[in-house]
Amino acid sequence: MAAIKRVLATDIDGTLIGHGGEQAVRDYLLAHPELGVIYLTGRTLNNACSIITRYGFPTPLAIATDVGADIYWGPHFEVDEYWAFEQRRHWSPRRLRTALSEVSGVIYRGRSSHWRVAFELQDPSLLPVVKSYLTQHHLTVRMLWHPNESRLDILPCTALKSRALQYILRRIGIKAQNCFVAGDAENDGDMLVNHYPGVLVANGDASVRNCLPEWIVRSRYPGALGVLDGLQQWLEPQRQ
User: Fold this and answer.
1) Which residues are in the Sucrose phosphatase-like domain (predicted)?
2) Residue burial 110-149, b: 16+ Cβ < 10 Å; e: rest
3) What is the pLDDT of residue 113?
4) Are 103 and 133 in contact (CB under 8 A)?
5) Cα–Cα distances in Å, from 193 out to 186, 197, 206?
6) Mind listing the pLDDT tens digit for each residue in 112-155?
7) How is the beta sheet containing 35-40 ordered, strand by strand?
8) CATH T-level fold of 4-84+158-233
9) What is the residue-wise DSSP string for 169-224?
10) pTM confidence score
11) Where exactly are the structural domains of the chain?
């Protein structure tokens, strides 16, 4: 087995999949076994593993699911119990649901995972009202708004891809400059604005693009081809 000296830390939806080029980036990663892979995704573990298997992507060193709320270690995907304990310290879904039951127009839609509580907002103008109620009830959480579905997902405040990635890199002994990050969406922004080299694929959110540091590649290619473009610029600069 090749010694891992560098890693690709990448989002899945909209980054590795969804815009074509999946086979090209898969083949590149498989041809470079010295490059470890870490997946950071909003998916649950089962959903993420089904995508990895479907496209034949490499088995990761680790995978952070639910936007960083859980970490599993490859190749057998054992949960990191210490990390899970850290999330539980900041998480009270019962108190959360009770607090928001007082807000007219906010409808509880269930839990799509252990760490994610979903609400429907009948009007987007309710977002600041929700924030105010949470503050009044001393609930510090992370909110992800999905305007196309009028859905608000609420997670532990510590569920951040950047925090999960920092923890994983520390555990495996990889320095930040040897980690290349790839993403497309707002929930990838905390990774992309840190001190890692990386790429925002062409289909990336404008809100993310506008706040990126100068060293992040703005690829002209969407999805997996954008990841491949960024990786080649990082690993094979003489090709440019």
Assistant:
1) 5-234
2) eeebebbbbbebeeeebeebbeebbeeeebebbebeeeee
3) 85
4) yes
5) 11, 9, 14
6) 888 999 999 999 999 999 999 999 999 999 999 999 899 999 99
7) 78-79, 70-73, 62-65, 35-40, 6-10, 179-183, 198-200, 217-218
8) Rossmann fold (3.40.50)
9) HHHHT--GGGEEEEE-SGGGHHHHTSSS-EEE-TT--HHHHTT--TTSEE-SS-HH
10) 0.93
11) 4-84+158-233, 90-154
**At 137, phi and psi to the nearest 5?**
-95, 10
Residue 17 φ/ψ, nearest 5 degrees: -130, 160
The residue-averaged pLDDT of 104-118 equals: 92
135, 109 Cβ separation under 8 angstroms? no
The set of residues, in sequence order, having a beta carbon less than 8 Å from that of 92 and lying 6+ positions away, is 139
For CA atoms 230, 227, 187, 172, give the dihedral sign: negative
* Average pLDDT value for the chain: 94
Q: How confident is the model at residue 2, as a pLDDT?
A: 67
Which two three-digit tokens encode residue 180? 């290349």
Q: Which CATH number fits domain 90-154: 3.40.50.2300, 3.90.1070.10, 2.30.30.60, 3.30.420.10?
A: 3.90.1070.10
